[in-house]
Amino acid sequence: MKTRLALTIQISNFQWSTGVLVHGRQNAKFISILDDQQQPIQLRMVQKKDTGEVCHVRIFADYWLINKTGIRLHYLQGDQHERTRIPGQPKWAAPQPETLMLSMAGGGGNYSSSSQQPPQQQVFVRLATSRLSPALNLAAGASGVLALEDPATPAVFQIAVAAHEAPGPFWRTRVVTFAPYRVLVNRLKVPVEYRQAGTQEVFRLLPDEALPWHWPARDIRPRHLCVRLLDPPSKWSGPFLVNVPQPVTFTLRRQQQQQKQESSKHPVHPLVRVEIRLAETTQYIILRPENMTHPLYRIENLSSYSILLRQKPREQQPSGPTTTMIEEVLPHCTTAFGWDDPTHEWTVHMKILSRSPDARHVVLSVPLNEFKRYPPIQTFQPVVLLVEVLPSGPTTILRISEGALRRRGTTMEMVRKEPEGAQEPVERLAWEAQVMVDSIVLSLIDDASGPLVRAAITTPYLYLSSSDLYHKAELTVRDLRLLNLLPSTPFPTLLAPLRPPSSSSSSSSSSSSRRALSQRSMAEVSNFVHVTAVKARGAGDIGADYFKYVGVAVQPFDINAEGAILMKLMDFKDRVLQGLLRATSSPDSPDTNAAAALALLFPSASSSSSSSSSSSSSTLSSSCLFEPPAITENKALCLGQLDLHPVACRLSFKYVSGFDYSSLHSILSWTGGLANIDAAPLRFNALFVRNTLSTREEFVERVKRHYAGEVQQQIGKLLGHLSVLGAPLSFVTGLGSSTSDLFRESARSVVRVRSILLSMPDLY
């Protein structure tokens, strides 16, 4: 007698399904369930038996729709020509971050990404009272932006659509997220009002509030934003772009009666910085107060004359932007600068006032988006004015200084004149710490094979200091050696410097000698590793970590590798990772993939379904739904000077038989086999970066691309060597010793520090 198993399911807010037979065959069936509105939804059921004759049943929906727009979202499923003939009202997703199941079952739906999908594979959406969108092919999984026009108003709703597979074992379900395309975030300490340029409808944004932004007038082009402060009130700012990921600083002009009440310690007209950060498919427009220590633009008047400056005005002022205002920079003063019209040309008109009524004023136009040193301006005898635009970390500086022309032989030489009483800022040391250890020995021991590698670190020295201007860190390692502890190895030393450390550079135990050690040049103390970092203080408010200098130098070293130790280390690494995975995923703990899927599908556990009687255009009163993710708050990385000096090494390799080299299969299939390499010199050229501002991810990718290209070049050099010898790599027994001239190549980078250059051997 055969027993048949029928399966029925129930999901929250759904009724019990009809019974479906479970027979263990590898095919797909459908389970139909009814929601609270008696609308059927068909879920897919996949049955499959494993080798132990255990039947696994998986039930899933084709799609999950997540609405994060804050406005009620309607969707229709079907053919474009049958939109008006679909019975009943369209389904909707509530303003809360609610998830709705959507099934394509019964429509011949497969998981192909072809553009020719059945009608049931297409979905049309509508936001509030807008028109229906064009057909969305959810199976294709494309992401983009929808512009939905409202027929009752001139507004246009812009929503971002992102489709991707659910994590882990839920990969059969595709998650489709609808989110606002633009979100305004107020990081100022006062409330602001904002509007579209050319319109009169005004909106309000409280401090630390985030709200989506949709254009209220779709026919006004170009589309710009304007803001103003509420406490104290200010004039409307000039229009600024929201589709360019470049930060910009603009000035909010206050009323005349408010300017007299301002303290001299603060600018009369506050500066606001606009940053645009992208997270997934949403643009976050963040309003921040300008950092007065490291602003985007700074005017330095080092001359003894007053300067009037303003942004270059438009030839014909449009109705939206405010007119550019004139500011005065007093002699020997410095001030931050912001634009009155951020969408116009970023050029400053300057007028240098003469103290003599008979002399003419100097008028000059200087674009701030071009680093340039202008020819000396000889007007007020015997003074020569020097104007230059130069970078300083994240800041663009317009500097006006004085100089004099002196005759030197047959030519005239310009000499800069320092202002009277001008002094360099004195760096006041707050604290410092020095740590020095004679030696550190670390051993890597495998339970199966015993000791593998021992690391011997000689005289590591760490110096840390903090002042009112900078944080400084310096790390030096005199000597580093990795020893191969396998009993029968052709290379007892796995890694070691080419040049042993000098005996005269032994350290003293006194604190004065330790401080002197940090100040010695590398020509006197041949350290194997030298790392220096100088970070400027006070740059946190600009959303960037400003490093004035970062330098890394490594002395040439030997790498003596053999097949046995490489296989042992790779096997040890795999077993450690497997042990960590087993420790983090205990049987009693919930599945991490399931937790990730639940967090993705149900962003808020407290969110409940909204009643159908609520208004379809209502929005959320709380802005927690639109709070930018943590990735948008990550600070950018600003580097004034980065010096990653050349790295040179000599590579030796011995092939040891009797080991399984399957883990190196990709390398072996490319090179043709293993070869014995004898002291082949390799060099990775330097990377020098000056005055760059980027995200950490962009900086890491830039460094990775540089060294990936250097590695490819060195591998190509080895393969080119083989082609000269006329033999494949697997037949080469000695590589590098007898044909060292083939490795001579011109260096593309020159070592910038002379002390480092003096300590380098002839390998460079």
Summarize the structure in short.
12% of the residues lie in helices and 38% in strands. It is built from 8 helices and 45 strands.
Descriptive report:
This protein is mostly beta strands and 764 residues long. It has five domains: 5-60, no CATH class; 63-180, no CATH class; 182-289, no CATH class; 297-417, no CATH class; 430-500 and 510-567 and 639-758, no CATH class. Helices cover 12% and strands 38% of the residues. The strands form nine sheets. Strands 34, 35, 36, 37, 38, 39, 40, 41, 42, 43, 44 and 45 form a twelve-stranded mixed beta sheet that branches. It starts with a strand and ends in a 6-residue tail after the last helix. It comes from Acanthamoeba castellanii (strain ATCC 30010 / Neff).
Blueprint of the fold:
Blueprint: E1 5-7, E2 20-22, E3 28-34, E4 40-49, E5 55-60, E6 63-67, E7 73-77, E8 91-93, E9 99-102, E10 122-127, E11 136-137, E12 144-149, E13 156-165, E14 174-180, E15 182-186, E16 192-196, E17 203-205, E18 210-212, E19 225-229, E20 248-251, H1 256-259, E21 271-279, E22 282-289, E23 297-301, E24 307-311, E25 327-329, E26 333-336, E27 347-352, E28 362-367, E29 372-373, E30 377-378, E31 384-392, E32 395-408, E33 411-417, E34 429-436, E35 439-446, E36 450-467, E37 470-484, E38 493-497, H2 511-519, E39 529-536, E40 544-554, E41 557-562, H3 563-584, H4 592-601, H5 630-633, E42 636-644, E43 647-654, H6 665-671, E44 677-684, E45 687-694, H7 696-725, H8 754-758
Parallel strand pairs: 6-14, 15-22, 23-32, 40-42, 41-43
Antiparallel strand pairs: 1-2, 3-4, 4-5, 6-9, 7-8, 7-10, 10-11, 12-13, 13-14, 15-18, 16-17, 16-19, 20-21, 21-22, 23-26, 24-25, 24-27, 27-28, 29-31, 30-31, 31-32, 32-33, 34-36, 35-36, 36-37, 37-38, 37-39, 38-41, 39-40, 42-45, 43-44
